[in-house]
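Lab notebook, design round three. We kept the backbone fixed and only want residue identities now. Task for the bench partner: fill in a sequence for the structure below.
Input structure tokens:
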């Protein structure tokens, strides 16, 4: 294994029932939340269906070397993959959270981002320093997004955060606009990735 090769676009597969345990009030304990998926879809493609019919190749962490399939991508599976491929580490991104910007309720966005970031820290980052995390930010509430970025980088050891670019357009912000400027004040040396699901147009 070489200590300088890293996977810069690894992914985790969220499990709502686990993230639920980290929700803060007023959502804490409300199991009726589990009736719906926590994260809205980022697009209309069902990649698992596409993989079954042969039109899509699932990622490396969705098939273990012993043939077991399943979109879990646990910390242990990630370590198996890194060792097998001779990779030192990986930066982990949310999968379901790519549609996080579609959350319409600011209060839910704040609580869900907080719970997700705590979940990935507990389930992945605490397991091994070879796995690094990219946080979700509740940009539906800019002040809370700044607070969460500070918590994620200083307390949870995240290396950065991801923001859905099309949400910035919906809110009337662009890469040079007030939202990004406000968040960058608190980046603390972290990377802020704008995920361009759709091209931004002014």
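Proposed sequence:
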């Amino acid at each position: 294994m070489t200590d300088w090769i890293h996977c810069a676009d690894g992914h985790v597969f969220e499990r709502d029932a686990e993230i639920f345990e980290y929700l803060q009030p007023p959502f804490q304990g409300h199991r009726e939340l589990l009736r719906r998926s926590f994260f809205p879809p980022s697009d209309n493609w069902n990649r698992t269906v596409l993989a079954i019919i042969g039109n899509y190749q699932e990622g490396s962490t969705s098939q273990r070397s012993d043939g077991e399939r399943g979109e879990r991508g646990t910390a242990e599976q990630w370590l198996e993959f890194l060792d097998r491929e001779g990779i030192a580490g990986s930066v982990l991104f949310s999968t379901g959270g790519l549609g996080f910007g579609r959350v319409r309720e600011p209060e839910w966005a704040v609580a869900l981002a907080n719970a997700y970031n705590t979940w990935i820290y507990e389930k992945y980052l605490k397991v091994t320093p070879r796995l690094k995390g990219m946080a979700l930010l509740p940009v539906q509430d800019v002040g809370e997004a700044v607070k969460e970025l500070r918590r994620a980088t200083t307390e949870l050891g995240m290396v950065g955060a991801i923001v859905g670019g099309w949400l910035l357009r919906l809110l009337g912000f662009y890469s040079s606009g007030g939202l990004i400027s406000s968040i960058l004040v608190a980046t603390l040396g972290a990377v802020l990735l704008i995920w361009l699901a759709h091209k931004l147009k002014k």
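Keep this in mind before ordering anything: Residues 6-195 form a domain with the TIM Barrel fold (CATH 3.20.20.140).
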